[in-house]
Design a protein that fits this description.
With about 375 residues, the chain is of the alpha/beta class. The chain is built from 15 helices and 13 strands. The protein is globular.
């Protein structure tokens, strides 16, 4: 295939859907006893709803939405700490747009900006570097967050700042990793998962072997997938064929983009700049060992936590979720967004209670965007 329209070809999609139905029936899954397939990535969740794949597949398949939205899994305490830094008069806080409206306990970054804090949306940490060059009398802080997809670009920005000696540039590092929360979910006796659709963009950086433990230790199939309808349908079929055949392996549907061993240049930058935190708090999952990254001592001059004495540098703190917020249950696949009593009433895109309603990869945002107000109505 060469063109995006080929990945959306309805004739090809019907052929794959037919094979999915045949394979599901061969496994013996039904609406009453479905197979639970988790798509780890929030981008996949949005694609599934955008193209209505959840309605097109066999009734014996239920998609479970995983914790693959980096903004969504950020705990409220870290949002609060970011706001604290941003409110300092000497600081220019820079961030991706997704993080602007995520609520903290006091306010979001958007609300802090409205109250006078100098907070600017950027498309890249390199934009933040340029601001630091142009504003030598200000402290420019980049709100670094995301999985392995965005981690290399932040690392490269820190390396460049070190080369230039930009002492007024720093990063509030909230970069996290994908494999560790999946292991935590698989260790949870209450989770019933039959297979995984693996993240495409993350795997472009880390390759496919990072998921070997899922098949080897847990006996679950996983297929790394792209983001077009036929990508996801083919990946689902590959997962089902493994289940039918009694196999558990790591397979790569997105081979046109994802190399087996990842991107060496990106991995080298990550290894140079970051080290693992002993643990990191995830919204809905709690503390997970070695799941977060921090800036190495060699680059401590560019670590906002060290520079401002905040965050883990001042000692970790935990903030409970707002009363009635079910983000944690949604992100771990325990409930669907519409099962949250706040969905569409106490929590809307205009007045969000939790991050899942405002992030471009959030499951609640997907239900709202592609289901609209109807999704909030009782079944």
């Amino acid at each position: 295939m060469k063109h995006v329209t080929e990945f959306r070809d309805p004739v090809a999609a019907r052929a794959v859907l037919s094979r999915i139905a045949e394979t599901t029936e061969a496994i013996g899954a039904t609406r009453e006893k479905p197979l639970h397939i988790m798509e780890i990535c929030g981008g996949h969740t949005h694609a599934i709803f955008r193209y209505g794949l959840d309605k097109l597949v066999h009734d014996g398949i239920e998609f479970i939405h995983g914790p693959g939205c980096p903004v969504c899994v950020l705990p409220m305490a870290r949002v609060d700490e970011c706001v604290e830094i941003a409110e300092r008069p000497e600081v220019i806080m820079t961030t991706f747009g997704d993080a602007m409206r995520v609520p903290g306990t006091r306010k979001s970054l958007m609300q802090a900006k409205a109250a006078g804090a100098d907070i600017r949306m950027v498309y890249s940490p390199l934009d933040a570097l340029e601001l630091a060059r142009r504003n030598p009398g200000r402290e420019v802080v980049f709100f670094g967050l995301g999985f392995e997809t965005t981690t290399p670009s932040t690392a490269l920005a820190i390396q460049q700042a070190a080369r230039e000696g930009l002492a007024n540039f720093s990063v509030f590092c909230n970069h996290i990793t994908v494999p560790e929360p999946i292991r935590a979910l698989l260790d949870d006796p209450h989770m019933v998962l039959d297979g995984f659709i693996g993240p495409g963009h993350v795997s472009m950086v880390i390759g496919t072997h990072a998921y070997d433990f899922i098949a080897r230790d847990c006996g679950k199939p996983i297929v790394v997938a792209g983001f077009e309808p036929l990508d996801l349908l083919q990946a689902l079929l590959m997962v089902l064929e493994q289940i039918r055949d009694g196999r558990a392996a790591v397979e790569n549907q997105y081979a046109r983009v994802v190399p087996e061993h990842g991107n060496p240049a990106s991995l080298a930058a990550i290894a140079d700049v970051y080290e693992r935190r002993p643990s990191f708090e995830w919204r809905g999952l709690g503390e997970i060992d070695a799941s977060g990254l921090r800036i190495r001592p060699a680059y401590a001059a560019f670590d906002a936590e060290e520079k401002f004495g905040i965050g883990y540098a001042a000692g970790p703190r935990s903030v409970p979720e707002p009363e009635g917020c079910a983000c944690g249950q949604v992100m771990t696949g325990r409930i669907k967004p519409t099962a949250c009593p706040q969905f569409g009433t106490g929590c809307t895109p205009e007045m969000p209670l939790g991050a899942l309603m405002v992030s471009s990869e959030g499951a609640c945002a997907a239900y709202w965007q592609y289901g609209g107000a109807r999704a909030a109505e009782p079944a």
